[in-house]
Each structure stands twice: as C-alpha cells, then as structure tokens.
Specification:
Elements lengths: L5 H5 L2 H20 L9 E2 L2 H9 L27 E2 L14 H34 L2
Antiparallel strand pairs: 1-2
Length: 133
Amino acid sequence: MGSISFANALGIHPLALKLRDRRTELLASNLANVDTPHYKARDIDFRKVLKGVTDPDPALGLSLTHPAHIDIDPIPKEPPTLYRIPAQPSMDGNTVESEQEHVRFGENALQYEASLNFVGSDFAGLKTAIKGE
C-alpha cells in the first residue's frame, strides 16, 4: 500500500488560504486607516502571486533535484504589495476608498471560505480513503 501525500491531495488550497489571509490583513489595514492622512491603500495581486507559485518562472532555475533538498515556502512571507490609484483622490492624500475596500474585503472573505470548504472536503475524502470506505 502506498503512502498518501497531503501536498498532492490538498493541491493549491493551503497556499491560497495563506495568501487570502495576508490579503485580509492588508484590506483590514486599509479600512482601519480610512481617515488617516496620507495613508496609501495597499493590496496584493492574488492571481499573479498564485500563478507564480503554480507556474514558476523557469528562468529562475530553482527546482528540487534531490529528495534531501529543502523545499521552501512558495508564497513569500511578504508578497509584493501594490498601491492603488484612487478614482476620487482625497484632499489629505489618503487613497482608501471605503466602499471599494468593503467590497474587496467581502469578496476576499467569500473566496477564503470557499478555499476552506475545498480543504475540508479534501480532508473528508482522505479520511474516507484511509478508512477504505
């Protein structure tokens, strides 16, 4: 009987959860600083960062070529942060647009929950496979 690889079984979902969590922090920080003069709204490009993880640039030449190699976390601790250009610039230099931030925060929360559901169903499938049901 072969071993079960959690990394293969869960796919990209644990990485997506980690990235969504970081995006939640950024969006919450934007909302918390909606009235802070000169605060610049920040975000990450979720798709671009996740694509870089799932489809790495071959020009970098990084790959595991031996089982003893240490695998690094594919999502950087601090993904590249982008600054938003507001549709309606504020007089005090703050670039947070409250309504847009609430929409982005809500969308991110729903996508986070969807990823959690995928991971939960993956674990349920693994449990069934382990029990042999």
